[in-house]
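Researcher: Quick test of sequence recovery. Tokens follow.
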């Protein structure tokens, strides 16, 4: 009874919580943070020496940590160092920082410059998609559906499901020339293989509904040709 009274009086203070449920060293989040911080400290010397791959890895830890070491300022600093040396992944993320106004002032134009480096030289599919979006909406670059289509196609051909969905949509809307239901159905089918990833990017991009919609106007021969084309398709690596 005295122990229960003490716990109630302390409101399960840190000491009482430790007494009944285990010490701080048993906390999974605390353990993971300690591991992450140790990894960060281990990477720093090599990153400071100029190794762009290690700089990128360090930036990713600061950027994506879920255990307490997340620091966007330091992520941007290390991405910048790696990006300036030509690391395509770092160039892409610097572009996202400018597009999303993280740490730096929003500038779609600056974002487009970094995306273009990653998209051209590094062939980063995420950067190609992002650059296509900028052209589609006219943000930081001229409003140009043909340019948007070109970048979506580059990303789609590498297997990016969101780009595949958008490419199918552009073919469907006639922005890529004459309407070809077989081509539309093929790209929607490819995107549907990674439906969850597409929906995570944008819940409005329903690949199942897109397939059903275009399929209503197709005959069985067209659908078979589209399915065969999707089955035989291979990413351009």
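Model:
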């Amino acid at each position: 009874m005295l122990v229960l009274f003490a716990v109630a009086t302390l409101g399960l203070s840190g000491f009482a919580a430790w007494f009944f449920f285990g010490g701080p060293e048993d906390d999974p989040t605390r353990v993971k943070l300690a591991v992450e911080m140790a990894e960060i400290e281990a990477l720093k010397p090599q990153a400071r020496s100029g190794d762009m791959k290690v700089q990128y890895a360090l930036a990713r830890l600061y950027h994506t940590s879920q255990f307490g070491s997340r620091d966007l300022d330091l992520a941007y600093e290390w991405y910048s160092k790696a990006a300036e040396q030509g690391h395509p992944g770092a160039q892409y993320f610097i572009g996202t920082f400018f597009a999303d106004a993280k740490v730096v002032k929003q500038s779609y134009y600056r974002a487009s410059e970094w995306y273009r480096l990653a998209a051209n030289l590094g062939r980063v599919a995420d950067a190609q998609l992002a650059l296509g979006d900028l052209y589609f909406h006219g943000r930081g670059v001229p409003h140009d559906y043909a340019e948007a289509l070109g970048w979506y196609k580059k990303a789609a051909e590498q297997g990016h499901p969101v780009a595949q969905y958008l490419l199918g949509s552009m073919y469907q809307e006639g922005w890529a020339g004459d309407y070809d239901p077989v081509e539309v159905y093929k790209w929607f089918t490819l995107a549907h293989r990674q439906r969850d990833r597409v929906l995570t990017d944008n819940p409005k991009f329903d690949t199942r509904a897109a397939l059903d919609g275009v399929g209503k106007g197709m005959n069985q021969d067209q659908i078979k040709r589209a399915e065969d084309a999707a089955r035989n398709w291979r990413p351009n690596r």
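Confidence is low (pLDDT under 50) at residues 1-23.
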